[in-house]
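Supplementary Methods, section 5.1.

A reviewer requested that the exact input to the structure prediction be made available. We therefore reproduce it here, unchanged from the version used in the analyses.
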Amino acid sequence: MYIAFLDEYLWAFLLLPIGIGLAFPGVLLPFFPYAGPMLIFVMILSLLPCPLLESLRHGLEKENLAAVAANYGLFTALCLAAAWFFPPELFIGFVVVGAAPASVSANAMVDLYHGNVGRTFSMTTVSYALSPLVMPGLILLLGSANSVIDVTALFHAVALYILIPFVVVMALRHTPVPEAISPYRRALSLVLLLLLIGAQVAQNADYFYDHAATALALVAAFLVISLILFFVGLHLGRNRKDRISFAEDVHMKNGTIALTVLTTVFNPVAGVVAVAQLIAMQAMFGFAAKYFSRKGALEVR
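The structure derived from this sequence is encoded token-by-token as follows.
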């Protein structure tokens, strides 16, 4: 049976890996090389109860497209505005984070919040389908004219995080597996998310100690950006489950892809921007858990 107290104290569990990753990076750093497989497992766990084919058919609904547009366009515009307040060497970090697709973790988080996972998966799929063109296009347009990105590698990453979970879930759909793991699915998903988040924070813990003021300012900037997008997404939904889905999907970015692109293609120092966005996103999970639990907070007026 699903552990009920995880729902009530979800915000605390989601903030825990940030503290551990910064205070004791050596504890979670060994999990960093396994970020990709863990992300795939989280996707599979969150999609098992979801009617995939039906959710894909709804991917081009106007509300979903509006959410994708906000995640790409509005997020990037706010990143560019914030970049003016930071050192020039971090500018490309804001561009890459803004150009990154929506986070596949949104599926797991919406599942934990009891939102519409099918709608979130539809929005994430559209975002990833556009990312091989939109992400390098925005980077080349807004970043350095000499900066390039391996579009093939990005496409492979998109296929890895979307196609593999989809195929596995479809293969398991009519087997005893979904029912067998159903009592443990949410708890297991949360444990994997904690390891994944903590490992990514631990990977860049040194910068936060050496440049504490800049790092804190980056996190604060992304908290403001995330709050704006959270409430934009919240007002796109017409019912409780949809409002949860839109609020989460609009403000979430795939920090793993952004961080990888920054550290391998651009200035590795700018990778701290992606880490700051990741930390702010986890803090937003805590805020969202408290907000969604408020009576009347999700009523459509």
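The mean pLDDT is 79. These observations are discussed further in the main text.
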